[in-house]
Amino acid sequence: MDDERYTGIALRHAQSTLAEEVRQALTASKKRLPCKYFYDPEGNALFEQISELPEYYLTRTETAILKRDAASIIGHCPLDLALVELGSGSSTKIRYLIDSCLARQQELTYYAVDISPAGLENGTRQLLHDYPRLCVVGVAAEFEDGLGYLATDASSPRLVAFLGSTIGNFAEDEIAGFFTMLRRHLRPIDRLLLGVDLIKDPAVLEAAYDDAQGVTAQFNLNILVRLNRELSANFDPATFRHRAVWNHERSRIEMHLVSLRDQCVRIADLDLDVDLRQGETIHTENCHKYSRSGMEWLLTRHGFQVLGRFTDPQDQFCLFLTS
């Protein structure tokens, strides 16, 4: 990006990481694919469409909370703040926090951490145009590597925003590792803002991940198109069906791709053949849902102090501000 207020940092080698993780995931006893690989340019565009769907309440509900409460959230943070967003995507919701920061300080640095270098530039270009007092550092990295880089780069107090209920993508054992990693990288002067989707009627949840227009189905199937393009695979998306189901015991929505017939898929770049039986699934995403008390217990257990809770009138979604 040709802008002196933008700095791009690349800490990950996308192609080698993709190949290694896909091999591991598709040779497991229960086949899966990491959900972070949904977000190629087409996946990003499809997710933007999903965010506008009537069934998908998450984005508009969290956005409404930020619009209403951003000033209060920033008011609970130290002065001369820097903003960090993990999984920045289109950098849309962060605008409310940027506005509140710039209302009380002369300039602001925003660190956008995402695995897609192209997505970082696209997501932040309009921000630089709209905010002359903003500097952006785009960090193409996994979350831990990005926070590790910031530990050496940013001296100002930081508000680390982890929005969109992305925390729900972590398995039960992974969330402990994630919170431990955050504790290692955050200082007492830093703050964490965590977006959490709350438990609700399973019919509402399933509709949010299996919309009537089929956009979420396209989004799920697009991961196969990406593997065809980037790893020379020969998946036929027409031979798979999107499925989203509520797992009550584990309090999560599960997304799968169901094989509609017996088939063998060749992934040439991995020299790998993947056999699938009719009805067998590739598990592509988990979206865990929490009660407010359950998430607060997890945060406290891992050493965080909850400073504020911000929710919507229907109690569908909650933003936790912690130190």
UniProtKB/TrEMBL annotation:
GO biological process: one example: methylation
Molecular function (Gene Ontology), one example: methyltransferase activity
Keyword line: Methyltransferase, Transferase
Domain Histidine-specific methyltransferase SAM-dependent: 19-322
InterPro entries named in the record: EgtD, EgtD_Methyltrsf_superfamily, MeTrfase_dom, MeTrfase_EgtD-like, SAM-dependent_MTases_sf
Protein name (Swiss-Prot/TrEMBL): Histidine-specific methyltransferase SAM-dependent domain-containing protein
